[in-house]
Design brief:
The chain has 24 helices and 16 strands. By secondary structure, the chain is an alpha+beta fold.
């Protein structure tokens, strides 16, 4: 922890805490202030972190914070800073005490010429994170300033990101985060999404990059620009003498958590497997010599010497060997003379492009055994994407990327024919992921996929099977059938005997009067409403996010993956009422949102996440409407929300009036 200047200690009076004598200010951040104090009962110096009033403005958030601290305090690991005590100041501000470590933090140490030392630090921090993650604790704020050293020189991970956890309100993030925090923050964390241990591993990857290279992978002048850089800019290249770390960094700093190391053990194994090339020690000596003033004039001689050395290494043997090699002293044997060059070294080195060939061979083997997108870490999609990141300009990589695209399409066609629509959508999404990466994403479905869809649709028409035709039509929309074809298919489906005027809302339309739909309105149902009415998406409010302005949420992109049968979220109350009116016009019924008493204690979920539901009841005014309890955002009771916004944990269901 950095000591503040002496003047800082007199800006405001020190807090009063029972059992402690506060001595001086150590440091101040947007969310807390750290003081040096003496614990009077034990006579020992400790550091005390006192939370800022604006960080925890109400009693509910303070108690939630204290519960988080109790969880962290149960961590006992040789590379984790212990929490001694939790309490309140005389002004009722939460605080906790911890050891006062005086050997500084990681940001004050230089590892640019100590690769082994940087790895040792990384291994220690991975051990701490592995321990914490196994107990359900995510740090959320891994950065050099939070890696402290004890008197034995051991690195200890401090200041688990308690105040950055979900549920402490937007003031915490906007007041407390600066460039220093977002410089190490995973993209999904900067967007305000739920995070897991993979976000910590991303941050540790940034820390390791900075230790090795002496600079951050991304540079920016403010917190928002830094967060955008992590979310959008490609992973930069390391300096030449660190290129053996490039492949490791491509995975450690991957934008998607699914493309990163999945746990600390995987990251540790990969870190220990990195080996510097044989020429690196020579390169280091040359770099060191180049910094010496006396060596600058001799740069040309150094280059000439290296050229001569290279020629000597490759010169064929013969009678002129003595030109490059000193003759052996008389009476010595060959075993007594150290070899200047061992040709086996060159023989054992991989051939140029061998890593590309290995990746291509591995991808083809995975395609052959149908490991296209699974299992994690051993599938063709991951192999090709990694190869594209490293060698996207190599024609061999382009060829195997095309082979994988063909394989994904073939499996999609097979899934369509077998009516495994979930699998078809999943494969098509992975094909889009690959196409986006290599710049070849198609605007509409490929011809073979269109043909398979049409075969299914025609079979449904031939059997006058309205339900099967509707399912085929919905799948065709999801797989991006051409709009002109969709319009024609829709007309044909409507011509089936007994078909409704619109392929919408069957479940709700079949309700008895006064009945509430057992399921929320789905994304697929809402999408058909939007396509028919061209209704623009509502602004979707989420938890505090640095990227909210840059990457706003909508019902189409709520921040997590959804299928067409999942409950739609990020829709406002006005959106829900507009959908109800449109559905009534399509079916001849009359629909509205249920009231609190009509909704009962029913619950809903989306992708395993429980969601709240809009109710027709007004809040303090009808500019606010009530929502049901029990959402994945931690809502435990009904509460009013602004009616003209959507929320990523709120959907809706309908009641039929007539």
């Amino acid at each position: 922890m950095d000591d503040a200047t002496p003047a800082d200690a007199h800006v405001e009076p020190l807090p009063q805490i029972n059992g402690y004598r506060l001595l001086r200010l150590l440091g101040r951040g947007g969310m807390s202030t750290v003081y040096l104090a003496e614990q009077t009962a034990l006579g020992r110096e400790v550091a005390i972190k006192v939370m800022a009033p604006q960080a925890l403005a109400d009693e509910v958030s303070r108690r939630r914070f204290e519960n988080e601290v109790r969880t962290i305090a149960r961590l006992e690991h040789p590379h984790v800073v212990r929490i001694h005590e939790l309490g309140r100041t005389k002004d009722s501000l939460p605080y906790y005490s911890m050891p006062h470590l005086t050997r500084g933090h990681l940001g004050e140490r230089d590892f640019t010429r100590d690769e082994a030392g940087a790895v040792e630090i990384g291994i220690a921090l991975l051990a701490a994170l592995e321990y914490a993650h196994s107990r359900g604790v995510v740090h959320r704020d891994v950065k050099p300033e939070n890696v402290l050293f004890d008197d034995a020189g051991r690195p200890l991970l401090a200041d688990f990101g308690i105040a950055l956890r979900r549920g402490f309100g937007p003031r915490v993030t906007t007041a407390g985060l600066a460039v220093g925090s977002t410089a190490y923050m995973a993209p999904e964390q900067a967007r305000g999404e739920d995070v897991d241990g993979r976000a910590d591993l991303y941050s540790l990857g940034v820390v390791l990059w900075e230790m090795l290279a002496g600079r951050l992978p991304y540079e920016a002048g403010d917190a928002l620009s830094m967060a955008i850089a992590h979310a959008q800019q490609p992973i930069p290249k390391l300096p030449a003498h660190l290129r053996h770390w490039q492949r490791f960094m491509y995975r450690a700093l991957a934008k998607s958590p699914d493309s990163r190391f999945q746990n600390a053990a995987d990251m540790r194994e990969a870190m220990l497997a990195v080996r510097p090339p044989r020429w690196l020690p020579v390169w280091d000596r040359l770099r060191g010599a180049a910094r010496h003033p006396a060596a600058r004039w001799g740069g040309g001689l150094v280059v000439l010497g290296l050229i001569a050395w290279g020629v000597a290494a490759m010169w064929p043997g013969g009678e002129h060997d003595a030109f490059f090699h000193a003759q052996k002293p008389a009476g010595t044997t060959s075993s007594e003379t150290p070899a200047a060059y061992d040709p086996t070294d060159r023989m054992l080195e991989p051939l140029p492009g061998a890593d590309v060939e290995m990746a291509v061979s591995r991808a083809r083997a995975q395609i052959a055994r149908n490991a296209l997108t699974a299992p994690d870490g051993d599938n063709a999609l991951a192999t090709v994407l990694n190869a594209w990141t490293d060698h996207g300009d190599d024609p061999r990589v382009r060829v195997v990327a095309g082979e994988l695209t063909d394989a994904l399409r073939a499996r999609t066609v097979a899934a369509i024919r077998s009516t495994d629509d979930t699998r078809a959508r999943d494969l098509a999404a992975h094909a889009d992921q690959l196409g986006n990466a290599i710049g070849q994403r198609g605007a509409v479905a490929s011809s073979d996929i269109q043909k398979a869809l049409r075969t299914r649709f025609d079979d449904a028409l031939a059997h006058n099977d309205r339900k099967r035709a509707q399912l085929a039509l919905v799948l065709a929309r999801d797989l991006r059938l051409a709009p002109t074809e969709l319009a024609r298919w829709t007309r044909e489906a409507g011509a089936i005997e007994g078909a409704p005027r619109k392929v919408v809302g069957d479940e709700v339309a079949d309700l008895d009067r006064g009945g509430v739909s057992p399921h929320p309105v789905t994304r697929g149902e809402y999408q058909r409403f939007v396509e028919a009415t061209h209704r623009p998406p509502a602004l979707c409010r989420e938890r505090a996010s640095l990227l909210r302005v840059f990457a706003p949420r909508t019902w189409q992109s709520p921040g997590f993956s959804q299928g067409p049968n999942d409950a739609v979220v990020c829709v406002s109350l006005q959106d829900a009422e507009a959908y109800a009116n449109w559905l009534g016009a399509q079916t001849g019924g009359r629909f509205r949102l249920p009231s609190s008493s009509e909704s009962g204690r029913t619950s809903a979920d989306v992708g395993g996440r429980s969601i709240s539901l809009w109710l027709r009841d007004c809040g303090g005014s009808c500019l606010e409407r009530m929502v049901t309890a029990h959402s994945w955002r931690g809502r435990t009771a009904q509460e009013p929300l602004t009616a003209n916004r959507g929320y990523d944990d709120v959907g809706f269901r309908l009641l039929r009036e007539r």
